[in-house]
């Protein structure tokens, strides 16, 4: 990782909860928005994804798809892309236990990597926040409070679990 990362920003796809939406579909949406990836980074990772703005997409089954390369500036949070990593949960406001677990693992792994690679001594770095937590953002993305999730020890938040009747998955 060669660029300075200060934030991990969590998003949602704003699609029906539990419905599979592929990284290729999200790439098509981002293409329609005019997002473009450089040829250099497309050669390094995911050459078929010409426009994806996120670095990771987490599917309802918990699988994690990669989008942009770590060193590639994202297209997911205007004004914050150059120093952030973007993670998108497929759905809107309720996510499967598998998604919650993958989100926790992905965020913890990224924080560890960023701290080790950048040698930061600030315990607050990188910041982990939701898109809606950024200044001047008027969205409910993701459909839960990331700060509350973090203080809840990164466990699924009540009222935001899609498969509550199946068990808590923890």
From TrEMBL:
InterPro entries tied to this protein: Amidase/PGRP_sf, Amidase_domain, PGRP
Domain of life: Bacteria
A Pfam entry, by short name: Amidase_2
Gene Ontology biological process terms from the UniProt entry: peptidoglycan catabolic process
Gene Ontology molecular function, alphabetical: N-acetylmuramoyl-L-alanine amidase activity
Domain N-acetylmuramoyl-L-alanine amidase as annotated: residue spans: 1-143
PANTHER family (alphabetical): PEPTIDOGLYCAN RECOGNITION PROTEIN, PEPTIDOGLYCAN-RECOGNITION PROTEIN LC-RELATED
Protein name: N-acetylmuramoyl-L-alanine amidase
Native source species: Nitrosomonas communis
